[in-house]
User: What shape does this take?
Amino acid sequence: MITVHLNKLRRRIELSTEEERAIRDAVVETRKIRADEVLIRSGEELKSSFVLLEGWLARSKDLADGERQLIELHVAGDFADLHGFTLKRLDHDVVTLSDCLIGVIPHERLQEITERYPRLAWVYWSYSNADSAITRELALSLGQRSALSRMAHLFCELYVRLDAVGRAGADSFGFPLTQRELSECLGLTVVHANRTIQELRRRGLVELESKQLRILDRSGLEGIAQFDPYYLYLNRLPV
Amino acid sequence: MITVHLNKLRRRIELSTEEERAIRDAVVETRKIRADEVLIRSGEELKSSFVLLEGWLARSKDLADGERQLIELHVAGDFADLHGFTLKRLDHDVVTLSDCLIGVIPHERLQEITERYPRLAWVYWSYSNADSAITRELALSLGQRSALSRMAHLFCELYVRLDAVGRAGADSFGFPLTQRELSECLGLTVVHANRTIQELRRRGLVELESKQLRILDRSGLEGIAQFDPYYLYLNRLPV
DNA sequence: CGAAGCATTGAAGTGCGTCAACAATCGTGG
DNA sequence: CCACGATTGTTGACGCACTTCAATGCTTCG
Assistant: This one.
């Protein structure tokens, strides 16, 4: 199951069999968690990091009035809290949006791996940086794009990210979020998120039913979103 | 001048004289740049990273219609594009908001430093992660806070960050941004940014004139902002 | 000292929020 | 397998925070 993560790493560098083994061995345990649980609570001290092997997670920050913002969605292959390895506590919760399977990697193991295999340290650092590029793009969306464009952008991004790890169909992917959760990604109310989806449907751009999102007009959607996958850094990088 | 950067690092770990020397030697050149220049353009290939020694920089992303979002402000001591070291090209511009003095560190030097001094690699990784925490907080602001709260939050954050590097007075700091730039940080129009400042002034929370921001009621401002400096990770971390 | 940028103000418009109700679907236990 | 409560999705009416447009004074700096 860790394969999905290894494949993600291989998009950046070749993995030696030794490096691959080190990562496989680092996963001391896999754990199943149900939807709508808090996997990591903001501020708690961390001794392990979690690789998401199946399902959807989100980083979540909330305000006193109970409103929350979902900062970044994670899909299979993603390290959910690699930043926890250096920070030791997080400024946000990590919550499950669907049933999940996660791999547990103790920080000592990460420590060993990164000391012993500088190339792996480098890829992981690099992935942390690509993660924050996603957050930057979100800030651009929240600050400057309209509701319609923002939602279109999110769908474009998710398609590309899922496709990159082999979790997307020709023009669709499983999308487990409720409209409430979707609205929390986009900084909208549920009501307006609902109306925005309907507008995308009305324009013949997407279908969304029974947790399945189908993109009917990819370039139309990308146009509205002003989507450019550049920020996802999906191409192999020079080492 | 690199001292301000070294001091920032010392907030996280002790620096050995050898480590300090390595960083000092890595700065092969310092460069003066005037306000409103593009220091790094999105997509261009990078061979060096820049430490900001004096002045203000911002990461900036823009949309086709010319609207732009300032994603993160940088002040003295910050590494402006440490993520460029692993990513080799950026998904955003880096622009000057005031006259600046920057230190140039070639990537080869960074490579040597991080290989030779794993603790430094670790602090730099850690700072990259703290950087993205700031971007996350921005996403929370843009998604969930009102204009007033957002602006209050930005002022609280900047005070704390500047204070941490000794660039703030008892209750004030130099703030070189125009209202247009401020509005671009907050995802607002200039007009509304202006009205929002006036509301903060009217409530006796801040003064802003001749590029100087004075906080008259710190706890009042923090209250409106729901500001909690936790996400800035200013305390020394366990290594 | 004049031009260009910057701050401020007013009036009017709109995208999204709020409130409230109802319909559809889901999950669970009997 | 159906019943039923709870969650999720949808719709309408109305309100407001922020935008848009446009004009005017204020700085700043060559």
